[in-house]
Design brief:
The protein is of the alpha/beta class. Helices cover 35% and strands 22% of the residues. It contains ten helices and twelve strands. The strands form three sheets. A seven-stranded mixed β-sheet has the order 3-2-4-5-7-6-12, with helices on both faces. The chain has a three-stranded mixed β-sheet with strand order 9-11-10, with helices on one face. Strands 1-8 form a two-stranded antiparallel ribbon. It is an enzyme of class 1 (oxidoreductase).
Length: 252
């Protein structure tokens, strides 16, 4: 189908646009999302879909996720933004003790599977201690949620749409250093990339290198250096989904 040159934040906007158009119950909310967000990921969406579907929240991450759980339990599709991944910790209890366990604790009478939490993730070079963290490891040990980190605009759109449509609570971390740095052709129409499926980016016979998000690009450079300087053949795998991760591809 038709493709368009997009950077990573534009591919996120495109995915959110597709989700709102497809699902009339979908809502997007968080700090400053109504005017487009600090990284411009929701720009134009309030004007297009109205203030009842794209709206700001108070500066309270615990409240944002608690509200999102309620929205999802009531049957709507909740897409909540935590402005920086570093500030997801006040919502940790809501995610780990409420969202992840909702289906189990109610014997599947209720669930908040229509919940996606987005957050800019990782270092950007000038973020210091409160705007540079990569907290996925804290969530990688929690049954009941899925954790996803893309490496590029094409991957970001397909994986985000899969998270939004998945019937389990998902956390989607977006590498903020790639928001403008990563650019490629991305389909305009919606498409899905399966969750929990790693991608082998480069075959190799000596050693396997596994990474996700921004580090995929670093690992690819390392693999090229290893081949050139040491004659070592490296396989490169992008994990993509951190939880539940693709053990089969990595072990193979």
């Amino acid at each position: 189908g038709q493709t368009q040159k997009m950077n990573l934040f534009q591919s996120i906007t495109s995915a959110l646009d597709n989700a709102l158009a497809k699902d009339p119950s979908a809502v997007i909310f968080g700090e400053d999302v109504a005017f487009g967000g600090v990284f411009r990921c929701t720009v134009g969406l309030r004007d297009k879909y109205g203030k009842d579907r794209v709206f700001n929240t108070p500066l309270c991450e615990q409240g944002i996720v608690g509200f999102a759980i309620g929205v999802a339990v009531a049957g709507a599709t909740a897409i909540a933004e935590i402005q920086f991944a570093d500030y997801i910790f006040p919502a940790f209890d809501q995610i780990v003790n409420e969202a992840a366990k909702y289906r189990y604790r109610s014997g599947d009478l209720f669930n908040c599977g229509n919940l996606t939490i987005r957050a800019p993730w990782g270092c950007v070079g000038h973020g210091a201690l409160y705007h540079s963290q990569s907290p996925e490891a804290f969530f990688a040990h929690c049954p009941g949620i899925k954790v996803v980190i893309p490496r590029s605009p094409l991957q970001a759109k397909g994986l985000l749409l899969s998270c939004i449509e998945d019937k389990n609570p998902c956390i989607f971390f977006e590498p903020k250093i790639l928001y403008r740095a990563a650019v490629e052709q991305v389909p305009v129409e919606p498409y899905n990339i399966p969750l929990s499926q790693a991608e082998v980016l480069q075959t190799g016979s000596d050693v396997t290198l596994v990474a996700w998000g921004t580090q995929v690009h670093v690992i690819k450079e390392v693999a090229a250096m290893a081949q050139e300087k040491l004659g070592v053949s490296c396989e490169v795998i992008d994990l993509r989904t951190i939880l539940p991760w693709d053990t089969e591809t990595v072990c193979k």
